[in-house]
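Tokens for chain A. Residues wanted.
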């Protein structure tokens, strides 16, 4: 279970702070599929908040499909990787195994044959060019920029509507976050590969915890990131501090940034800032996924 910070001096309700941090735990895979969350009473006692607050946060996540309540057992993280897919493939695999066993093949032999075929077909058919797709097209662009920087080759991005219009769309390996998986999985039967995100602690590395109230500027074209920032700034425990949000696509977006004590920006927005401003660049993609992406691209180059 991730460490959770609650700011009682923030204008953001404690329920929203809790819900946002639990969601970040799910998105960064620190809270794994089928993992049981603490009981309402236990978490309320740990955070020193009213049980109704914890219950409301759990209900919010359940309503959005991130967690599932099981009567008498508790609240569990949903397996979003396979969410929405039918069990037809399970039926097929079971029938194949039963047919093989009836012909005298051992389970070990069937498993070895399947693994060999998977590797051979995967090398021949698995798409290696990467395409980042997300309902928030600007967020897709930011994630693609981070991955592109790590793998050393062009990684295009798209929103839901324009993704199918990308030339040779079927040849790309689709990438998205857990929050975009439901929508992106509708674009192709095999669904996307999920981008693992950094934990809250990793994302906020570099911001620190100033001893006195400060004015923080958050710069991004992604409305998703700007919303996350508003929810996560209380995590820093900056009592009395203020946050201003700036989107480079809007007029006069640089206004007020000069007065900020700290400026944070995503990898793309940081390039738009004046040279006199040295922002803290927030990295969203987990190092483990960047390593995975390098392997995929390297396999294609070979």
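Reply:
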């Amino acid at each position: 279970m991730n460490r959770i910070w609650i700011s009682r001096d923030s204008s953001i309700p404690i329920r929203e702070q809790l819900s946002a941090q639990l969601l970040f735990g799910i998105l960064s895979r620190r809270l794994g599929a089928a993992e049981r969350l603490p009981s309402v009473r236990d978490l309320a006692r740990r955070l020193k908040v009213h049980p109704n607050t914890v219950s409301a946060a759990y209900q919010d996540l359940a309503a959005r499909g991130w967690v599932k309540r099981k009567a008498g057992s508790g609240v569990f993280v949903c397996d979003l990787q396979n969410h929405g897919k039918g069990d037809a493939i399970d039926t097929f695999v079971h029938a194949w195994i039963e047919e093989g066993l009836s012909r005298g093949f051992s389970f070990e032999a069937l498993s070895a044959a399947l693994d060999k075929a998977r590797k051979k077909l995967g090398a021949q058919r698995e798409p290696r060019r990467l395409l980042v797709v997300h309902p928030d097209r600007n967020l897709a662009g930011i994630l693609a920029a981070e991955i592109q920087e790590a793998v050393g080759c062009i990684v295009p991005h798209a929103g839901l509507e324009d993704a199918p219009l990308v030339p040779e769309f079927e040849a790309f390996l689709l990438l998205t976050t857990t929050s975009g998986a439901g929508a992106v999985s509708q674009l192709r039967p095999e669904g996307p590969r999920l981008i693992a995100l950094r934990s809250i602690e990793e994302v906020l590395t570099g911001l620190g915890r100033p001893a006195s109230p400060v004015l923080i500027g958050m710069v991004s074209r992604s409305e998703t990131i700007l919303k996350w920032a508003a929810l996560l700034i209380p995590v820093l425990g900056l009592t009395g501090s203020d946050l201003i949000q700036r989107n480079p696509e809007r007029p006069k977006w640089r206004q007020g940034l000069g007065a900020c004590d700290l400026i944070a920006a995503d990898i793309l927005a940081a390039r738009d800032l004046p040279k006199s401003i040295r922002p803290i660049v927030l990295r969203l993609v987990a190092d483990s996924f960047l390593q995975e992406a390098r392997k995929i691209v390297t396999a294609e180059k070979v």
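The chain has a mean pLDDT of 83. The beta strands are 67-70, 74-77, 129-133, 157-158, 172-176, 193-194, 215-219, 242-246, 262-265, 280-281.
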